[in-house]
Structure formats: C-alpha cells, structure tokens
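Figure 6 in text form: structure in, sequence out.
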C-alpha cells in the first residue's frame, strides 16, 4: 500500500484538479457502485453555489455536531494538506487514514480497468470524493455535509442521494467550465436538485432564481428560501457577528457581512432538520477573513473571484476604515483577475504583487501593471513578499486560496 506522501503524489499525477475535471458522472459512477456507496452512504446535506458554500457547510456541520451527531464534512480545495478535505467530527483525517482510503479507491479502480468496466482512473477530485465516502462508511458517520467541487450537475458529489440540498448565492466563476452567463452557471448549480428532496435556496439574482425555480418545479423538489428566516444583526465586529434568527440569538464566528446570508441559509437548513442554530457558534472555516496574527495584524482571505473581492472590499471599508491597508495579492491566470483587482486595489494603500507556487499562477509583473497607484511592488513568491518592508496597520494576504494556503503553512504554528 502506498504511504501518505506516495498517495498524494499519485493524486497529483492525475493532473490539475480543474484541467482534469471530466464533468461526467458515468465513469466515476461505476466506481461508486462497485464500492457499495449507494447503500453505505450516510444521510447527506449537499451544498452547491459559487461563493459561501464552504462557509455554509462549516456552519451546518458545526451545529449538527453540537447535538452529539457524528458528522462528516467534505470540502475543497484544501489550504495546506489534502487531509483537510475529509473531516470526521470536525477533525481532518490522519495521513494514515487518508492513505488507506486512497488505497481502497485505487484498488477498486484498477480492478475495474483490468476488467474492462472502467476506461481511465478517476480524476483527482473524483478519487478524493470516493475516498471521503469510504472514510464516512468506515467511521460510521451519522450525517455528512458535502460541498460541491465544480458546478453541481456533473460534479462527482452529485452521485449522492441527499436528504437536503442547499444552494448558496450563484455568481460568476469557472466560466470556462460552467458557461459565460449567470443563467448557464445557475443551471449547473441547480443540477443537484432531485425529485422529492427539499432544498434551501439563498438569496439570488433574479436570473439565477428563475433557473433554480424552474429546475425545482421540473424535478419535483420543494424549495425553501433563506429569506423565510427573520434575520436581525445585533452587532458586528471585524471578527464575527451576533445574529438573531427568528428571535434566537447566536454568535457567527465567521467575519464579514457576506456571512450573514450564509448563516441565514444554514439556519434555514438546520430548521428543516430540527437542529438548534446555536451550534453554529463553534464553526471554524480557515482562510476566509481569518486573522492569524495580531502584531503585526495579518488577515487571510481567499477572495479569488469578483463576488469574493466585493465582499473583502466591503469588509475593509466597514471594519478597517482610517487604517493603512497593506495587501499581498497573487492569483491564477484563468481567474477574472482584472475585475478582481479593479475592486480590491482601490481600497489598498500598500500593495505587493506576487505569485502562488502553482503553474497556473499569473506573473507578479502582470498584476503590477493593473495597480492604480505608485505604491506597489512585485515579489517573485510569498516568502519574498513577506520579507519586503511594510508600513501598514493591517496586512491582507489574498487573491488565491493557494496563496492563502501557503501563508497558513508559513505563518500559522
């Protein structure tokens, strides 16, 4: 059996997670059936959307776990180690457990290929998805919260038969795979809706709402709205909020105004399951407006698309007004980086452009060309960026979750 480093190396050999995305359920479904997951999967809450789906998953899982239920959580991407993607009771699986799960999926896949029942090995994401359900079966998880990886309709996670679906706000991202229009993207997200399975829908743009409603009606899924929950913001600070849902007060530990809708969506999902919302207070979601240092103050945020950039800009303007803002920014070539930089750079006083340690990273010099002011510099990588002298009150490291993951590995002990 391959050990953990060898398992991770094999997964990476399957190709870039996006470039190797097959967006088809036929092949991965063969392995899913062979591993017996239709029978062994635990009750599932399936969450799609563009922004906020990971945060919403974390809030739902924390509240369910707080009631004593043994939970599974499957999210992507990871920040530092692939083990973060698969959690049981809020704890990432061990490297040994990760390797054992890989071995199980790999063995079945190889057998199916040898038997002529499978054309190629499942992709990186497909393999880790199968690994998550292997772990959940082995650990006898009682409820799993599953985040869609890309889109929804043809995402590997859409093999599940969920008890509840959730769709967080739909916006522009991954247009090369999901379509250039909001209606096309919403159609992919709405592909998780299934006959007879209730779904909670966050507040959406009108064109997305129309697509999701039509899909719900077509498949016979009862749709519930996050807006059915009365939300009152009691107080908010740079590190979270106190919210009141239908009169019940709870601390939301996830920072930023955009988390209010995520929390309300999670609250509606929890209501449908009869779970108290108070447990959301224990949620942890690293790398999203996460303060990792007080002196100097450093905040990480994976604002990798226009909606995420808008949320970060609003957060800076609301909670850090009057302070000198520094930012280390790096992004991928296949992201809408010009739109993201046009939103973020105007709220920054001091900018350092860099590149995540990824082949898809945009060159720092290309980012520097988009800087609207003279107080901007380029650094070849994150360590070099961090070594440059700074004169800011608070430093944000953002633009790519890969960059955020590197920052956590370097700065969080």
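Output sequence:
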């Amino acid at each position: 059996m391959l050990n953990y480093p060898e398992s991770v190396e094999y997964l990476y050999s399957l190709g870039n997670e996006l470039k190797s995305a097959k967006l088809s359920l036929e092949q991965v479904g063969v392995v899913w059936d062979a591993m017996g997951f239709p029978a062994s999967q635990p009750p599932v809450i399936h969450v799609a959307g563009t922004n906020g789906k990971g945060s919403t998953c974390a809030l739902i899982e924390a509240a369910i776990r707080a009631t004593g239920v043994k939970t599974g959580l499957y999210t992507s991407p990871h920040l530092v180690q692939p083990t973060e993607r698969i959690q049981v009771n809020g704890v990432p699986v061990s490297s040994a457990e990760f390797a054992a799960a890989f071995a199980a999926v790999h063995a079945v896949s190889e057998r199916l290929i040898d038997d002529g029942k499978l054309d190629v090995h499942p992709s990186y994401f497909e393999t880790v998805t199968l690994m998550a359900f292997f772990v959940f079966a082995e650990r006898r998880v009682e409820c799993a919260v599953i985040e869609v990886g890309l889109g929804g309709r043809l995402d590997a996670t859409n093999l599940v038969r969920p008890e509840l679906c959730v769709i967080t706000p739909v916006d522009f991202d991954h247009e090369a795979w999901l379509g250039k229009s909001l209606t096309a993207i919403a159609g992919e997200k709405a592909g998780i809706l299934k006959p007879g399975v209730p779904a909670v829908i966050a507040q959406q743009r009108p064109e997305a709402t129309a697509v999701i409603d039509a899909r719900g009606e077509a498949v016979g899924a009862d749709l519930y709205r996050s807006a059915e929950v009365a939300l009152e913001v009691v107080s908010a600070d740079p590190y979270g909020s106190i919210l009141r849902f239908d009169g019940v007060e709870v601390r939301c530990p996830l920072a930023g105004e955009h988390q209010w809708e995520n929390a309300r969506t999670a609250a509606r999902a929890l209501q449908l399951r009869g779970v108290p919302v108070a447990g959301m207070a224990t949620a942890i979601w690293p790398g999203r407006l996460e303060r990792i240092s007080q002196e100097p103050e450093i905040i990480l945020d994976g604002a990798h698309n226009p909606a995420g950039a808008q949320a970060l800009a609003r957060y800076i303007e609301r909670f850090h007004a009057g302070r000198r803002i520094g930012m280390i920014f790096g992004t991928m070539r296949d992201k809408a980086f010009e739109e993201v930089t046009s939103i973020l750079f105007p709220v920054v006083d001091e900018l350092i452009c860099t590149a995540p340690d990824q082949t898809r990273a945009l060159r720092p010099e290309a980012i520097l060309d988009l800087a609207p002011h003279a107080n901007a510099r380029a650094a070849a990588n994150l360590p070099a960026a961090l070594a440059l002298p700074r004169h800011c009150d608070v430093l944000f490291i953002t633009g790519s979750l890969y960059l955020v993951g590197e920052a956590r590995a370097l700065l969080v002990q």
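Caption detail: The radius of gyration is 21 Å.
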